[in-house]
Amino acid sequence: MDNAIEIENLQCGYNHKFTIRDISFNVERGKLTSIIGPNGAGKTTLFRAITGMLPVQQGTIRINGTDAFRMTHKARAKQLAIVNQTVEADFISIEDYVLMGRLPYHAPLQLFESKEDYAIAEKNMRLTGIWEKRAKLMNQLSGGEQQLAAIARALTQQTEILLLDEPTSHLDISHQMRILNLVQRLNQEQNLTVLLIIHDLNLASEFSDRLIMLKEGSIHSSGTPEEVLTYDNIESVYDTLVITQSNPLSGKPCVFPVSDKHHFINTK
Ligand SMILES: Nc1ncnc2c1ncn2[C@@H]1O[C@H](COP(=O)(O)OP(=O)(O)OP(=O)(O)O)[C@@H](O)[C@H]1O
């Protein structure tokens, strides 16, 4: 099996306050893998370790076969691009923001982007549907448009691996679907390896080849959506009563929450 990311016995955290431990999993090349789990389970902490923002206390992370610990920031940025939960950009145009994705490829002391940089940025602004708005400042965009700009910038990095931390968290269903359909298309057409943190279990199920479910800093279960999104797993990890059924079109598991009112009526 060809893996883009390999994680073995990973341990890291924040000064005894919170630690993820014994995390081992592989992200298969060309697949869309999602990390799910309740608030505070350690999803972003795991991402920070993969992206080098948080030191690893134990274990190894290999990116395309190379120990991530031995990679420079620039080398890592040529292998994986990140879309964070919140987009931090204010008085900068969309175009300049997206062009920042070319920085890992700039020669030392290079001040200006090349024609090729512009061409790559244009292609990705068109792909994400923000080309017409490219002169607008980032702080004049809606949350959804900012997310699209962040994805355009990540794609402009031209990496084989894309990491997204809750890219749809503040979006309505139409923007959620637009972003996830785009990510899925890139995954399928360009063999992009995608690792996604996502809260919505139904979207995770619909779009992912594989799910990794975290609970309290460890992997509770992993596998296909059918294997992971079971009634038992969801109740034990989220402490919430649900019913799971199949999506009539895609066949993927669908999760229906059950309110206390209906639960108690049916169990009386
Ligand atoms: N910089 C930090 N210093 C200390 N503790 C932190 C820090 N960042 C996060 N934590 C703690 O680590 C734990 C895991 O946080 P993390 O952000 O990884 O969870 P998460 O699964 O991504 O949660 P969410 O779904 O709410 O985004 C939480 O208890 C959080 O309070």
UniProtKB/TrEMBL annotation:
Signal peptide: none annotated. PROSITE patterns: ABC_TRANSPORTER_1, ABC_TRANSPORTER_2. The keyword Transcription regulation does not apply. Residues 5-241 form the ABC transporter domain. GO terms for molecular function: ATP binding. Keywords: ATP-binding, Nucleotide-binding, Translocase, Transport. Pfam families: ABC_tran. SUPFAM superfamilies: P-loop containing nucleoside triphosphate hydrolases (SSF52540). It comes from the Bacteria. Part of the ABC transporter complex HmuTUV involved in hemin import. Responsible for energy coupling to the transport system. This is ABC transporter ATP-binding protein. It comes from Butyricimonas hominis.
